[in-house]
Amino acid sequence: MKTLSLLLVATTIVSGATFAAQTLYKDYPADVMPELSESGEFPVGVTTMEVTYPEAAMTMEGKMETRGLTLEVWYPAQKATENTLYSDETRSGQVFEIQADASRDVAIAESESKFPIVVVSHGYTGYRTLMYYLGEHLASHGYVVAAIDHTDSTNKDVNFAENPYSGFPSTLLNRSRDQVFTLNAVTDSEFFNASVDATKAGVIGYSMGGFGAVSTVGGCYAFNDEAAATFTGTKDPAVIALVKQALNTCAGGKASSDDTLSAWKAALALAPWGGQHQIFDVDSLNNINVPVLYVAGDNDDISGYDGIRWLFENTGSKDSKLLTIKNARHNVAPHPAPKEAFGNEFDIGSYLEPAWDTQKLNAINEHFALALMNCHVKDMAEFCDYLNVKGSSDQVLVEGKKPTPWKGFDDRWALGLVVEGK
C-alpha cells in the first residue's frame, strides 16, 4: 500500500473558503499489508480530460443530447514533480481536498512497450477520484488508468437529500456506454495515443460501475416491465416499452454481446449492483469469456450478497473468481472518509465499513486488482498465482497445524477473506 507523509499538508483557497488538503493513509510496515499493494517502479502522473461523445446520445426520454464526461487519468510518468490535489464533495455538498501521490500534467514515461488501459467507474452517486488509490497504484505499475465522472450520477449532479433518484435513469442507461467511450477517448487522445496499447484493457467498476462493467465485458441487460417501471419511475405502458428498448443492450449500448470489444481482457466488479434483481440475461452471462473478479461483502445491504453470487455463478469465464469479505457491507471500494464527512451519518455512511479498516480494504483491492490486470491484461503468468488462492484466508488450525498464508500475505495478516473459483 502506498503511504503518504502525515506531515504533508497544503492549504488552498476555493471560492473564498479555505480548505486544508489532507492525507488519508497511515504509514504501515509493508509486512502487514498484501504484497501487491506496494507501489511500483514508475512515478505517477495525472491529468484531467474533458471528452464529448462524437455524436449526440439518446436520453431515457428519447431526446438526442450532447453528452460529455470529465476524466481523471493516471499514468506512468517520466519523473515526479510537486504532488497535486484532488478536489471533490460529499453527498451533502461538503467540499474537500486530498493530497495526491501524483504529479499533474507531467510527461508520460518512455517505454519499449505501450501501456495497457484500465477504466475505473464509480457508483451512484460518487466522483472520479473515489478510487484514486487504484488509479495511482496501477499507474505506478505501468498502466494508464482513466476514472470517470459519470454525468448525471455524481455527488455534484444529484441532490441526494431532496431528490436521491434523479440521476438513476441516466445511470442505468449510460454506465456501460461511458466505460466503452472512455476507453476509445483515451486511446484517441493526442496525449496518450502514442503510448497506450488499445488492444489490452481492463475495467474496474464499483456498485453501479460494476453493473456497467459486467455489461461492458458481454453481459446483456434484461429489464422486464416491472423492473423498467420500478427503476425509472414510469407507469405508462408505452413509455415502459421505450425504456426497455433503450436499456436492454449489451457491451456499451450494442445489440448483442457479440459486439463486445476484444480489447477487454479482465474486469474487477466491486459490489456490483443488478444481480439481486436478476436484470441480466443469463445466456449472455454464461457466454462471457473475460475473467471477472467479483468482490463482495457477505452483508452487502445495497447490491445484496446473494445477487453478487448469482452474477458470479452465471458468469461463464472459467477464470472468474468471487472474493468474499466477511462481515463487510457495501462500502468495500471508496477511499477513506475525508474529515468533512465526519459531521453526519449521511455523508460518512458512503465511506465507512462497520467492521473493517478502510485502508486495509483499499490495500486488498490494490493487491487483487494488480494481480488480475497483470495476469490477464499483461499476460504475466507469475501473477496468476496470486489469484489462484482458494477457501478461507483465516489459517484456522487443521489437525493442530496452521495452514500457510495465501500467496502475497504474511503469516497472521490475512483474515476474513474467502476466494471461490469455477
Automatic annotation (TrEMBL):
<feature type="signal peptide">
    <location>
        <begin position="1"/>
        <end position="20"/>
    </location>
</feature>
<dbReference type="InterPro" id="IPR041127">
    <property type="entry name" value="PET_hydrolase/cutinase-like"/>
</dbReference>
<dbReference type="Pfam" id="PF12740">
    <property type="entry name" value="PETase"/>
</dbReference>
<protein>
    <submittedName>
        <fullName>Acetylhydrolase</fullName>
    </submittedName>
</protein>
<keyword id="KW-0378">Hydrolase</keyword>
<keyword id="KW-0442">Lipid degradation</keyword>
<dbReference type="GO" id="GO:0003847">
    <property type="term" value="F:1-alkyl-2-acetylglycerophosphocholine esterase activity"/>
</dbReference>
<keyword id="KW-0732">Signal</keyword>
<dbReference type="GO" id="GO:0016042">
    <property type="term" value="P:lipid catabolic process"/>
</dbReference>
<feature type="domain" description="PET hydrolase/cutinase-like">
    <location>
        <begin position="112"/>
        <end position="214"/>
    </location>
</feature>
<dbReference type="InterPro" id="IPR029058">
    <property type="entry name" value="AB_hydrolase_fold"/>
</dbReference>
<keyword id="KW-0443">Lipid metabolism</keyword>
